[in-house]
Amino acid sequence: MKARSLSRPIMIAGLVCAISATTMVAANPKVVLDVGVEREEVLVDDSGTSVVERRPVTRANPGDLLVYTVTASNFGVSPAANATVEDPIPNGTVLVLDGFGQGPLPTEASLDGGETWQTFPAEVEVVRNDGVRQVLPAPAPSYTHLRWVLDGQLAPGDSKDVSFKVRVN
Amino acid sequence: MKQTLRTRFGLGAAIAALVLLATPALALGTPEGTPISNTATVNYEDDNGNPLSATSNTVTTIVAQVAAVDVDPDNASSADPGDTVTYLHTVTNNGNGDDTIDLAAVSSQGWTVTIYLDDGDGVFEGGADDTVASDTGLLSADGSVDIWIEVVVPAGTADGTVDTTTVTGTSQFDSGVSESATDTTTVDSPDISVVKSVSPTGDQPPGTTLTYTMVVTNNGNAAASAVVLTDAVPANTTYVAGSITQDAGSLTDGGGDDNGDFGATTAGTVTVTIGTLAASGGSTTITFQVTID
Q: Does CATH number 2.60.40 belong to domain A2-168?
């Protein structure tokens, strides 16, 4: 680890390491994921206008809205092919469907722990007691995983954010 | 891309299955202290089509404690003056963590109110085995206790008096969280009136016989017992012997043989022991006569 002896900031040193490591193997992509969480709060300012703010959170109350943001960055030297970012809905929370899935990236959802996937919004087909099949929107608590398709989106140096909102049970 | 899940259960079973996927929730949410953690995964391929993956850092949010209190139900009862009335309530910790709930009960009439913790049998036994309490003791999330509110209606309280005793449970964890229930006590008591008239009316010469009529009525919401009417014969008149009647039946002047007497109980006075008058309009009519001296 030569980089340690450099008097440069650690971040740069890490990047140099990553590049030198990958060049030794091949011209490969290297995707690094970071996830962060904030609490969404509706504040009312002096004029009575509601303002939605997001603040760092370590403790949350039941009913609070948490926004998870996942950042995928390609520190490699070639594009990441067929990249997908997958994130489970955390235990103790329910996905907030309202306003979700409006982003530019194709979004998929799983209702069975990531075994099978559907284009968001997910549906369930049920057979009623009278034998009639019916397709219904999947209820929010049934969502277990989300997945975003980033294929062709992660060239070297590229970074993409995806996010979703949950309510604490 | 769309893969519709094919569920072969009935609708009810499908919904039940979906509900099971959700985290079991308490009345008010996830237990306090529960970590909510999230880690994302990325899957991709290198230039040669080899699969690669990476996981993110893990972010953890701890569920904080939130208080919630439930006091149920509202009760109502009627009571006589002097009665002691008891009301049963269930006090529940609907929060997501341990909490002790302070108890208070206040009577709108300022009557004496006592709070008892039920000993678990749902039967009020006073101080015998239901203890006087100012809080519920420690309740776990979703835990509850039954409490009794004892309201003492003072003797002599007027008929129709309404008391609202408000029972309030307040979280010790968060004193800003409380809930109340009410116990409404309506007092039923006798309300006796006497309407007296005389016949004939107006100026009369000496020797005239006057008939006094007293209508005794209970307009209260409770029966009256041991009702006694007394009426002193006016000055300058002489009682007409054997003239007492009750509801058109004659009563003797002697004491102890029937409801009425003249002079036996109190000298110069007509006394009629009416006894019980029914609630809401029970009535009796007494008459006697005098002559003007």
A: yes
B232 contacts chain A (CB < 8 A): no
Q: Which of B187, B207, B238 is the last residue of a domain?
A: B187
Residue B12 near residue A129 (C-beta atoms within 8 A): yes
Q: Do B3 and A61 touch (CB under 8 A)?
A: no
Quote ipTM for the complex. Answer: 0.79
Three-class secondary structure of residue A140 per DSSP:
helix
Domain boundaries, chain A: 2-168
Contact: B4, A135; criterion CB under 8 Å: yes
pLDDT in tens, B17-47: 444 333 444 456 789 999 999 999 999 998 8
Domain that holds residue B126: 69-187
* Token pair 């992660």: residue: A154
Q: Which of A93, A110, A107, A115 is nearest to A163 (CA)?
A: A107
Of residues B82, B151, B143, B141, the one with CA closest to residue B116: B151
Domain match, B73 and B181 both: yes
- pLDDT tens for B111-123 read 999 999 998 888 9
